[in-house]
Amino acid sequence: MKALVRPMPILWWLRSRAYVLFMVRELTSVLIAAYLVVFLIFLQRIAGGPSSYERYLHWLAQPAVLAFHLVALAAALYHSVTWLQLTPMTVVIRLRDRRVPAATIVAANFAVWGALSVLILWLIVGT
Amino acid sequence: MTMPEPTVSLEIFRYQPDGGGPSTFQRYQVPYHEDWVVLDAINYIKDQLDGTLAYRWSCRMGVCGSCGMMINGVPKLSCATFLKEYYPHPIRVEPLANFPIERDLVIVLDDFMKKLSQVQPWIVRAAEPPLSAGEYRQTPEQLDQYKQFSMCLNCMLCYAACPMYGLKPLFLGPAAIALAHRYNLDSRDEGRASRQDVLANEHGVWDCTLVGECTTVCPADVDPAAAIQQIKLSTAVDWIKRALRPGGGA
């Protein structure tokens, strides 16, 4: 008796909305990685002296590069928000034999994220 | 004059290994009743229209986990899916995705059965006390730690929903991992270390990319995705502990 095997089509992720959202979430990593490359080059140019730094700043100011940064920021926000929303799945905390509610764990994560973001903003802008 | 009885159309996946020829979809017109589930309609086809149709079912009340099928592309228990959710549109019924198909709606279960036994889904003890020592006792709080993960029906809807299992058939998969977690969390069990061999290897929890559909389709609210992520966390903690131990290393 021969069993029938149906291979996964290459566009399997178009089958459902949940799969599409999953793929979008995975692909945000590519934009975040691309941003990190831009950022690493930025650090290298700083080390390369004032003129190299100025030239890079000029390149960064182009509309297309600005647009890339906006898209990468949106991708990073989407990835971070969906990631933090999933934390109650992994983090099981019990207090006095009661499980801490999912909403509390998500809220705590967002609070820490917000606090760290404000700290970084203060380090960059405030000082 | 009486009104014609309303009907609903079912497009059923057919595959006959001995009949030659490729798989097809066969359309059946079935009486529509508001209180009928898809399994009732399939039973009607088998009894009244076409006795050659093959499928699995048993309890018809969401307990046995035998009647899982793809219904309009979504893995569901056919005994818990009402015709009225789709009526008057046609309903397409296929065997559970990601499994080899034996015949019509019947899938080959061997891979799941093998994986299930690999995680030792029973209470493992380092040493068995004599029977005279009595039963293992457990408080309601200890039961509460794992109860959710013990509700699995072995219906395999989660495997049909998991694209990672479809792409990487060696992946241990959601239900087997959830059951491993159920025993790991059991206060009477001492088998976690031996289960780690299959859970923490390359085809264990790390093959999961958290699509999350296993949890969405689970008819028993087991939340296998949570079980997998919790094992990822505890496995990572194990690794850090080993790496930090003097003279340990990964």
Description:
The complex is a heterodimer of chains A (127) and B (250). With 127 residues, chain A is mainly α. Chain A has five helices and two strands, in the order ααααββα. Chain A folds into two domains: 76 residues, Fumarate reductase/succinate dehydrogenase, transmembrane subunit (3 helical TM bundles of succinate and fumarate reductases, Up-down Bundle), CATH 1.20.1300.10; 36 residues, no CATH class. In chain A, 74% of the residues lie in helices and 3% in strands. Chain A has a two-stranded antiparallel sheet. Chain B is of the alpha+beta class and 250 residues long. Chain B folds into two domains: 101 residues, Beta-grasp domain (Ubiquitin-like (UB roll)), CATH 3.10.20; 135 residues, Alpha-helical ferredoxin (Fumarate Reductase Iron-sulfur Protein, Chain B, domain 2). In chain B, strand 3 and strand 4 form a beta hairpin. The chains are: A mainly alpha (127), B alpha+beta (250). Chains A and B meet through helix 1 of A and helix 5 and helix 9 of B.
